[in-house]
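Have a think about this chain, tokens included, and walk me through the fold.
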Amino acid sequence: MPRQLTFDLPPRPAMGRDDFFVSTANGAAVALIDGWRDWPHGKMVLTGAPGAGKTHLAHVWAAQSGARIVAATEPQDLATLPPALVLENCEEVAGDSAAEEGLFHLHNACVGEGIPMLFTATTAPSRWGLRLPDLASRMAQAGLAHIDPPDDQLLMMVLVKQAADRNMALTPNMLTHITARMPRDFAAITTLIQQADALALSEKKPVNMAHIRAALADLPDDPSS
């Protein structure tokens, strides 16, 4: 039977503190973010793979600090600075002279006003490829918090959360089946949930084990195994 046409509508992720799961993979990073009043020079770089929860943790911190969350490449009005600032995907400024210059001046303005800054990126600033030496030296002064690849506990929790964001219900059997077979990779979690959801929607059925098996079969092998 041909599958029905589906529309992959973006989920509405829950971004509250109660929705952020802490495990050995991210506990150290969470502790550093919670201790934001003691950040070196008032700034911290939060790193981790795509899907690791950097944006979620940034929202948690924003709720604590009153921070504005913006893309690092987005120009900012230095005359209307917020009480705290999150700059997302900071490595994207590297190699763009205007973006690097803009981030440098924004950084200096925030430091001058005592405004704490949280930077998110996949890697540490030393690996971004910044061309502006003054910006590179400023970023090197920031603290560094890293989210490791997910352990089994976090893997299962992120699966449950991403499924819930799409109004999907995963049974204990599904979760056990998935965690025994999938790569320990945040991006793979997102891919699996998206594919299982699309299959279920195409058949106009709740997600079932057949959908899970099919989605797992499309994932790449775990490079760490």
User: Anything to note?
Assistant: The radius of gyration is 20 Å. The chain has a mean pLDDT of 88.
